[in-house]
Amino acid sequence: EAGVTQFPSHSVIEKGQTVTLRCDPISGHDNLYWYRRVMGKEIKFLLHFVKESKQDESGMPNNRFLAERTGGTYSTLKVQPAELEDSGVYFCASSQLPGQGIGNTIYFGEGSWLTVV
Amino acid sequence: RKEVEQDPGPFNVPEGATVAFNCTYSNSASQSFFWYRQDCRKEPKLLMSVYSSGNEDGRFTAQLNRASQYISLLIRDSKLSDSATYLCAVNKGSTLGRLYFGRGTQLTVWP
């Protein structure tokens, strides 16, 4: 069974440009999450989709970030315009039920590494 | 104040050693606790969950101390393959889908 897949794996863009990251969750997983880790910091939650609805978007840093999950399948995270501090690794994750818990595991993708220069 | 604090290490130990990592959390409402393992430039993978006082799985033992608000991970008989970054994470009942991670502790096991 395919895991969580993310594209692109690496991206280098100039400040002010736009980047769109894509995540394909594990088939059948209604819950999809975006996290990111910037240099020297911990992995931080960005938002949580249940199907196509945003369940919790309290971690989104500002309005330059837009996440969508049309149709409740794959998701995109757009950064526009990108700033230097947006550099880091963006992880997508998915699970059948909400949250990490008994009988439910959140599976992470390998991440999309973004460098803004 | 960070939700989760973790000693970043690095820890460098010989094969066969026992090593322990600690992690403290700030919010007493935290309900569930986890240890993840992350290899270099890979995704975090769940290693162990801790729902009550502790959990043991082979060479790995995780313990929870709610009174002092910390969780620990003990690795016995370290193997070269244990070299990785170990992340602790917690979640709160109010926001099940959201995990709060520590910065991770880097472990290198040398032959």
Question: Would you write up a description of this structure?
Answer:
The complex is a heterodimer of chains A (117) and B (111). Chain A is mostly beta strands. Chain A has strands spanning 5-7, 10-13, 19-24, 31-37, 44-50, 53-56, 65-68, 75-79, 88-95, 107-108, 112-116. Chain A is built from no helices and eleven strands. In chain A, strands 2, 4, 5, 6, 9, 10 and 11 form a seven-stranded mixed sheet that branches. In chain A, strands 1-3-8-7 form a four-stranded antiparallel sheet, with no helix packed on it. The mean pLDDT of chain A is 94. Chain B contains no helices and eleven strands. In chain B, the strands form two sheets. In chain B, strands 2, 4, 5, 9, 10 and 11 form a six-stranded mixed sheet that branches. Chain B has a five-stranded antiparallel sheet with strand order 1-3-8-7-6, with no helix packed on it. In chain B, strand 6 (54-57) and strand 7 form a beta hairpin. The chains are: A mainly beta (117), B mainly beta (111). The interface between A and B is medium-sized, with 29 and 26 residues.
Topology diagram in text:
The complex is a heterodimer of chains A (117) and B (111).
Chain A: E1 5-7, E2 10-13, E3 19-24, E4 31-37, E5 44-50, E6 53-56, E7 65-68, E8 75-79, E9 88-95, E10 107-108, E11 112-116
Parallel strand pairs in A: 2-11
Antiparallel strand pairs in A: 1-3, 3-8, 4-5, 4-9, 5-6, 7-8, 9-10, 9-11
Chain B: E1 4-6, E2 11-14, E3 19-25, E4 30-38, E5 44-50, E6 54-57, E7 60-65, E8 70-75, E9 84-92, E10 95-101, E11 105-110
Parallel strand pairs in B: 2-11
Antiparallel strand pairs in B: 1-3, 3-8, 4-5, 4-9, 6-7, 7-8, 9-10, 9-11
